[in-house]
Amino acid sequence: MSKHKKDPLLEALKEGQSYTWTVPDGGNLASMRAALKHGQTLTMSPITDPSGIRVGDLVLVKWHQSDIFHIVGDIQDGQFLIVNSLGKINGWVAAPDILGRVTKIVEPEPRPKVETMLEQLETAYRVLISSANALPDEAQRLLTIIDDLRWYAARIGSERWYTMPRSNKWSFEQNLWRLTKQAREDASPGPKRLYTLIDAGKQAVGLASEIVTLFETAP
């Protein structure tokens, strides 16, 4: 017998509790890409009074044998028209089919430009090298990451920094932002932290290489 992992959002709503999550980087957000942004923090709350549902609300809806995260497009006679952010109509549902609605959206931290991210990343690396008393080869490994990312940034071209090379693949900017945030937010010294950032940086370089390949081999 297979075991299905429980969805924490659905579990929270069933228990009458709100659930908060952050839209992760990567992916194209599919049919909700005109309503959501990467990095937004959303809070969804259970429906206690259907009269509080409004046109334009982002809602989780029971749909056939599953559920979908879409938008209320219209309300008539206690029925709710469900649409996606691109205007496609799914159909009408009754109030009990609406499992929850988004009650709070926190916008993500504004991202600096790619050139600024690279500067911030280099600064964070140099601070870590000094505070951790990094050995010369360890320092070189960190700084080589910056050189490699700048090289790939030039190869990709600024016009494609923010473009996903394929559906559900991160853009160069998203890849760099994740690494820059990680380096800025935890400046704790020590070999373990040093190696963690080296590993994360090498992974980011590998992803940048993959992005180049996907762009160059795209039909």
Model regions low in confidence, pLDDT < 50 over at least 5 residues: none
**Could you give the distance between the termini?**
43 Å
Counting DSSP E segments of at least 2 residues, the number of strands comes to: 7
Helix content: 25-40%
Count of all domains: 2
Give the SSE order as H and E letters.
HEEEEEEEHHHH
Strand arrangement within the widest β-sheet reads 1-2-7-3-4-5-6
- Approximate strand percentage: 15-25%
**Helical stretch tally:** 5
Tell me the overall shape. elongated
Based on helices, strands and strand pairing, what is the structural class? alpha+beta
Radius of gyration: 22 Å
Short précis:
The protein has 219 residues and is of the alpha+beta class.
Layout of helices and strands:
Elements: H1 8-14, E1 19-22, E2 41-46, E3 58-63, E4 66-76, E5 79-83, E6 89-94, E7 98-106, H2 114-131, H3 136-156, H4 172-185, H5 191-217
Antiparallel strand pairs: 1-2, 2-7, 3-4, 3-7, 4-5, 5-6
Explain this structure.
The chain is of the alpha+beta class and 219 residues long. Helices cover 40% and strands 21% of the residues. The chain has two domains: 8-106, Umud Fragment, subunit A (Ribbon); 114-217. The chain has a seven-stranded antiparallel beta sheet, with helices on one face. A hairpin with a 5-residue loop joins strand 5 (79-83) and strand 6. Helix 2 (114-131) packs antiparallel against helix 3 (136-156), helix 2 (114-131) runs parallel beside helix 4 (172-185) and helix 4 (172-185) runs antiparallel to helix 5. The model has no long low-confidence stretch (mean pLDDT 91).
